[in-house]
C-alpha cells in the first residue's frame, strides 16, 4: 500500500492528468500514512507514524499561513491604489485608474516585502516538515532494515534546504521515487531464520 501511495504521489507531481493530479497526490499521501501507521503498529514504534503526520501537518500549516500573508498583503496593496473588492471586477473603474501616478515605490515596496516574508515562512515550514518526515523515515529504516528509507529521508531534507534553487525540487522528486523503491523492498526482505531449537537437557 505504501509503495502504491508513493507512486501516486510521484504521478501527482507530473502534469499529465491536469486537475486530477492533485487528487492523486492526496490519495497517495493518505495511502502512505496508512502504510506508515501499519508499520508503526507492527514494530510498536509510534514515531514512524507520528513524525510523518506532524511533518505533513506542518507543511499544510506553512502553506495556509503563506497564502494568508499573500492574500492580506494583496488586499492592502489594492486598497493603497484605490481598488476595493467591490470594484475589483469593474473593468471600467479599473481602466480609469492612473497607474503611473499611484503605483510608486512607497505603495509597491510593502507588498514586495510581504511577498518576501511569505516565501521565508514557506521555506522555514518546508524545512521543518522535511526534518520531521526524515525522522519518520529513519525510524522506518531502522525497524525494517531497508536503507532506502534513510536515503529518501536524507535527500528530502537536502532538497528542502535547496528549494531556493531548482535542484532542490529535483532532489525532492528523486526522494519520492526512492520512497517507492523502499516500500516495495520491505516485501523483498528475506525472512529471518527461525530460532534454533532449545538444547535438550543432558
Summarize the structure.
The chain is an all-alpha fold and 202 residues long. 78% of the residues lie in helices and 0% in strands. It contains 8 helices and no strands.
Number of helices: 8
User: What's the gyration radius in Å?
Assistant: 24 Å
Uncertain runs: 188-192
Q: Give the CA-based shape.
A: elongated
> Could you estimate the helical fraction of the residues in percent?
over 70%
- Indicate the mean pLDDT: 82
Strand content: under 5%
Counting DSSP E segments of at least 2 residues, the number of strands comes to 0
- Reading the helices and strands in chain order gives HHHHHHHH
What this model shows, in words?
- The chain is mainly α and 202 residues long.
- The chain has eight helices and no strands.
- It has one domain.
- It is 78% helix and 0% strand.
- It is elongated, with a radius of gyration of 24 Å.
- It starts with a helix and ends in a 14-residue tail after the last helix.
- The model is unreliable at 188-192 (pLDDT under 50).
Keywords for this entry:
single chain, 202 residues, mainly alpha, 8 helices
Question: What's the structural blueprint in terms of helices and strands?
Answer:
Layout lengths: L1 H12 L6 H24 L3 H34 L10 H5 L3 H4 L2 H40 L2 H15 L4 H23 L14
Amino acid at each position: 500500500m505504501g509503495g502504491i501511495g508513493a507512486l501516486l504521489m510521484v504521478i501527482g507531481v507530473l502534469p499529465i492528468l491536469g486537475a486530477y493530479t492533485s487528487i492523486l497526490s492526496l490519495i497517495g499521501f493518505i495511502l502512505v500514512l496508512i502504510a506508515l501507521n501499519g508499520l508503526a503498529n507492527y514494530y510498536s514504534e509510534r514515531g514512524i507514524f507520528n513524525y510523518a503526520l506532524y511533518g505533513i501537518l506542518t507543511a499544510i500549516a506553512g502553506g495556509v499561513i503563506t497564502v494568508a500573508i499573500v492574500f492580506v498583503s494583496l488586499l492592502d496593496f489594492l486598497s493603497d491604489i484605490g481598488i476595493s473588492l467591490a470594484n475589483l471586477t469593474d473593468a471600467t473603474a479599473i481602466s480609469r485608474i492612473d497607474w503611473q501616478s499611484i503605483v510608486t515605490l512607497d505603495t509597491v515596496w510593502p507588498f514586495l516585502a510581504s511577498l518576501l516574508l511569505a516565501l521565508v515562512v514557506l521555506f522555514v515550514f518546508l524545512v521543518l516538515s522535511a526534518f520531521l518526515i526524515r525522522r519518520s523515515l529513519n525510524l522506518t529504516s531502522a525497524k525494517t532494515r531497508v536503507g532506502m528509507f534513510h536515503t529518501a529521508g536524507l535527500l528530502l531534507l537536502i532538497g528542502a534546504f535547496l528549494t531556493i534553487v531548482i535542484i532542490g525540487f529535483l532532489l525532492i522528486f528523486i526522494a519520492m521515487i526512492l520512497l517507492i523503491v523502499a516500500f516495495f523492498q520491505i516485501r523483498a526482505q528475506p525472512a529471518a531464520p527461525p530460532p534454533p531449537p532449545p538444547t535438550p537437557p543432558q
